[in-house]
Amino acid sequence: MILTVTLNTALDITYRVRSLRPHASHRVSEVIERPGGKGVNVGRVLAALGHEVTVTGFAGGGTGRAVRDRLAGTEGLTDALVPVAGATRRTIAVVDERSGDTTQLNEPGPQIAPAEWGAFLDAYAGLLPGAEAVALCGSLPPGVPVGAYAGLIRAARSAGVPVLLDTSGEPLRRGVAARPDVIKPNADELAELTGSHDPLRATEAARRRGAHAVVTSLGPDGLLAATPEGRWRATAPARLPGNPTGAGDSAVAALLSGLVADAPWPVRLRHALALSAATVRAPAAGEFDRETYRDLLDRVRPTAVP
Amino acid sequence: MILTVTLNTALDITYRVRSLRPHASHRVSEVIERPGGKGVNVGRVLAALGHEVTVTGFAGGGTGRAVRDRLAGTEGLTDALVPVAGATRRTIAVVDERSGDTTQLNEPGPQIAPAEWGAFLDAYAGLLPGAEAVALCGSLPPGVPVGAYAGLIRAARSAGVPVLLDTSGEPLRRGVAARPDVIKPNADELAELTGSHDPLRATEAARRRGAHAVVTSLGPDGLLAATPEGRWRATAPARLPGNPTGAGDSAVAALLSGLVADAPWPVRLRHALALSAATVRAPAAGEFDRETYRDLLDRVRPTAVP
To answer: Which pLDDT belongs to residue A285?
Structure first.
């Protein structure tokens, strides 16, 4: 089983409007609701790839119930979310039909009480022995200590379970120091961590800070990986138009899949790039286009970076 | 008991953001949730004024549950909402802290099945005999016949219960023909109904179409009423800055309160203007400032319009 942790789960809501104008009133023509939060998205993609996944983290309130109801129908995915008194946050993506642009509104998430954080730590400790790998994903809700991921990484390492960390800011800085197996920052997150805007330098700097492998997502420029086996760059054969929402979560899912298979790094990157590009090409955010995935798996060739 | 009907109830959500920019991602700093829909708002104001109120209409899904949970704590207010399979809509008001402007996103509301509409008609027929007055408020959710309000008005008239109608567009046009006791359009709704942009002419034209009394809200220019007893205009002694959300619903509440007391029209208008202005002055949308209300009640003097 692969374990994904989403401390700040979300009910992701997408609104379609004719044209978003500040200060105006808008009729929403379409409403789509999906369970969200990075680790939940990673879990859904892993389940779609045929893995057994357990998702944990927090869920509460009517929005938490909506998230859990929707997860219940996902084959291969086990819901081990810990109940909290506060309500799971909503994220609202407003899609402007005229421009195709998306405007995002993200609620902060519920306040987590110390006893709730304690209940999560117990649940996590109980799940680790059954996990082949664990992914720690996304932002921390209010009340969770900023060093939370560092503690979860140390617990996983003590249990002999490899860890991937995908977060930003101070939780990333503290987490890296606890020596996770893989981190997957984007260029901005990596620059904030290392102070360097040069992706190659920054990727190496992040390794020196404690990450065993660093896979940086560079948007349309693909992936750059610095690992104990070497450095590679993977790029798509052509620019792919589409919706990048969830592309990073798909890359994380592919990296986890390669991690538990103990695949060579170039193979992991090939899958991560193909799956991530296939997510950009899918009509709905957070899904992936299987044909694009298969096609790109044949065509992507990561190149060694000297 | 005063009965208010809200066929398209809502969970009203207010988000506070630093500055709303289309195509950007925003952290919401504050989330406020309130039960909404015009008739629900009218009911809350009536309950705050000491009236016994029953609210009916539809509620469903997690959002409907959130609406009902919050109504359960309102003293003087009885929840007679009819359950439906679809989810009660959300409305999102995004308040831009920098400009103070509000951007509104309104979901369309759940599809109402014919059997659900039938269940509502039964509930409404059962509630009418106990009502001193009924208010029919707001838009119609998908699936409810466009002539719905006309039928509800006829049923109320048959039961000897006076009716106030507050809606717009085709439901208003059809409703007016069924001869409601009072309608409360704003200037735009009245112009759409009558084709005239002159408020006085349009107000009289609406009476000829079937409304016994027409009270038009003119925003900061106050209220204009054409009734069987005469015509009046009521304006605030000074422009009051604030949030106009809910001001129209407060005017409706005051008009209903005056209707069941059989108060003279100038008294009803005095209350309607004072309560509506006190709502503009309240810090939270849909509440009213009691001091402003009392103060304006002393100072507002409706003037006869020849």
So the answer is: 64
For residue B127, the enclosing domain spans 1-18+30-144
- Rounded to a whole number of angstroms, the distance from the CA of B50 to the nearest CA of chain A is 31
Task: Find which of A17, A19, A23 to mutate to test the B interface (most B CBs within 10 Å of its CB).
Answer: A23
What's the half-sphere exposure (Cβ side, CA atoms, 13 Å) at B294?
2
Q: What is the CATH number of the domain that holds B126?
A: 3.40.1190.20
B58 domain residue, yes or no? yes
If one counts the domains in chain A, the total is: 1
Whole-number percent of chain B with pLDDT over 90: 90
How many CB pairs (< 8 A) connect A and B?
79
Residue B69 within a domain: yes
Is B22 in Cβ contact with A101 (below 8 Å)? yes
In a domain, A304, yes or no: no
In which residue ranges of chain A is pLDDT below 70? 284-286
CB atoms within 10 A of CB B301: 13
What is the average pLDDT across B258-273? 96
A26 with B102: Cβ contact below 8 A: no
State how far residue B99 is from chain A, nearest Cα, in angstroms.
10
State the ipTM, two decimals: 0.84
Rounded Cα distance, A230 and A138, in Å: 27
To which residue do tokens 């298979």 refer? Answer: A261
Of A255, A246, A303, nearest to A277 (Cα)?
A246
